[in-house]
Every structure is written in C-alpha cells, then in structure tokens.
Fold:
Amino acid sequence: MATYDTLGATYARTRRPDPRIAAQIHTALGNTTDVINVGAGTGSYEPPRTVLAVEPSQVMLTQRPPGSAPAVQAVAERLPLRDDAADAVMALLTIHHWADLTAGITELRRVARRRIVVLTWDQDVFRERFWLVREYLPEAAALDDARAVPIDRLVELLGGARQEPVPVPHDCVDGFGAAYWRRPHAYLDPQVRAGISMFTQAGDDLIAPGLNRLAHDLTTGRWRARHAELLALDSVDVGYRLLVADL
Structure:
C-alpha cells in the first residue's frame, strides 16, 4: 500500500503498543488458541499466540521487531489463507485503509474459526469530543468522514458484534490520532504527525492554518484556559471502539 510505504517510515518510533490498550485487546481475544493479525503493520498488540501477520506495506514489514510472528505481504481483501485458518483474526486501526471493506470483512469471516476483533473509531463521537479536530482541524476531519466506517455498518458486515469503548490514557505511548489529547504540543512535532494518517493524508497545506492557531493558543495560554478540565483526567473516550464478533 503506497500510503504506508510513506506514512509507515516512522512507526517504529511513534507507534509503540500501549500496555493498557494491549490488555483490553488481549482480553477481547479471550481463550482463542491462535491469532492472525490482518493489516498488522509493525506488529503492535500481537499476542504471543499470533501465528501469522498480514501486511501490504514492505516498509512496515521491515520494521517488525526480531522474534515477531511470521509475516506475509498481502491485502485484507485477498488473504492467502485457507478457510478456518485460525481461532481468531484481529484487525486494528486498519479497516479504513482497505480498498473494499465488504471483501475484507468477508475474508476475515472466512479465515476465522471463532472470533474477530476489530479496533476502529466512531467518527461522529470523534468529531464531537476530540478538541483537535473540532476546533483546529475540521478540514482534516472532513477527509476522515469519507474513509471512516460507520460502526453500525461494520457490525452488520461482521454478522453482529459487541462494542467496547477504548479509553485513551493521558500518557498513551501509541501515537495514534488522539493519543496526545492532554499533550497538545505534541501535535506541533512533525515526527509525531508523520505517524498519524489523518495528518499525512490531509497534507501540510490543509492543516497548517489550524496548527498555527494551535501554536498561538498554546503560547498565549488560551488552549489551557479553554481545556483546563482535561488536565485533571487520566483517560478520555473520544470514540475508539473495539468490536468483538463471535462466529
């Protein structure tokens, strides 16, 4: 995938697994005996029982640490696997990049024997609750409107699923979109932004005005005055959701 051949270059530095989110994902996988990770990237959140990672970007594959599960370069829509290949399949913050969502979910259902675990986000909640997109980058949020998958549609494609909110800790070590909700200066760091697809896909010209406003508000204290209540919170729910489907 061309996007992640570019976007993924800094993932090993900025997109490390957060242990609290990892614990929630591993609990959702339950007592399944073997796991396939689709859209695996650099291997974040893979439990020890992962038997195969599937990832389209060679750049991402080369950043997988030593000792990771075996990996194959392929896309979700055409998994090079037999039917019922593993107890569980997981797909974490990846489905919005797939070219054909229906085909991809059909493939997950084909290769999973017992359970599918998907980490995604509810765009409506994200827009409403995350100050960065609401106040500074509505243009970037508009781009996400087109690629974000409505939760109801995803549940339908999965054949039913339970939903779990995934709170984002204030010191989250996985630098995805809302990870720095209590550390606003981080969004001014180009290396941080390089690991967040919302920024890279929007482009510098689109996000520069909003980031300039953010920099000004941080310098003047306006951001702190407006969002003082956030500084007392340990975690927030800004719309990230874990979907667990039993087959």
Observations:
- The CA atoms of residues 3 and 39 lie 13 Å apart.
